[in-house]
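Onboarding guide, step 5: your first structure request.
Type a short instruction followed by the sequence, for example:

Predict the 3D structure of this protein.
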Amino acid sequence: MREMTIGKNDAGQRLDKFLQKALPSLPPSLMHKYVRLKRIKCNGKRCQTSDRLTEGDVLSLYINDEFFQPVKEEEAFRRITPRLHILYEDDHILLCDKRPGMVVHEDDQGTLDTLINHIKAYLYEKGEWDPDKERSFTPALCNRIDRYTGGIVMAAKTAEGLRVLNEKIRLHQVHKFYLCLVHGTPSPRQAVIQDTLLKDSKQNQVRVVKKNTPGARTASMSYKVLQSRGKLSLVECELFTGRTHQIRVQLSHRGWPLVGDTKYGTMERNRPYGMTHQALYSYKLHFSQEGDWGELSYLKGKTFQVEDVPFLPFFYDQSKN
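The system replies with structure tokens like these:
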């Protein structure tokens, strides 16, 4: 038996919400069972999962020691109720419309509420993937986007899907298009731009540097101004390389930072618009007709596009500014 005393910062929570955070290895079904069997008590008495905890409450936990161990990252999906916005799915791949704010993989803070874990939980619930029966394959992401960038993320449900998508990405036969709002009006209105970027991993920041700078990498993309309203422009970008913060850095370097971008823009220019994160969305994906796509040949020439880009209504309201 172990005891936990509720402190000030944990007071006010429902019992079940507290236990989910304090004992992430304890499955929700067992938690409810143990409360019902009085193997989890509050102040020595029977309790309910809906009870609100107060400072000084003492929880008595008559449960196995294994449930006090931290959840392994690869098992985190078992703790998640999947929440996905699925744009497209077949036997081999899954295209998700990731919403801004969700991380794709576990980050430095150990976040387990990630896109890949939601995908694993979804496939596990459907019975399409069971880690206890697989010898080596695990569902995997084929591309990643920043936490506060939204849009299409590709996931492989099978080893063949993963092999083909990774190969097509390497061959630049998967075309990724982004929408963004920028300050000003880019000139010319359409161009291909290339820079050399250097990443500072400690600061998680990227800057444009001279060619042949040690550790720097070439970054290439095209942009096209779709429309300008007031002091803002709606721009479509196609990435030819996949560098960290690439669109944000390359456009900011030319004087057109993204609206809401506090890392590569300025507070002064962003303040009138009230956005706290970059207005950037991976909104369209096109699979090339080129080459042999194997079991994924049905994807050749197909284009997928999200229906809802959150900042578009805001942009179309700017005509009076």
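Each response can be followed by summary notes, for example: The mean pLDDT is 91.
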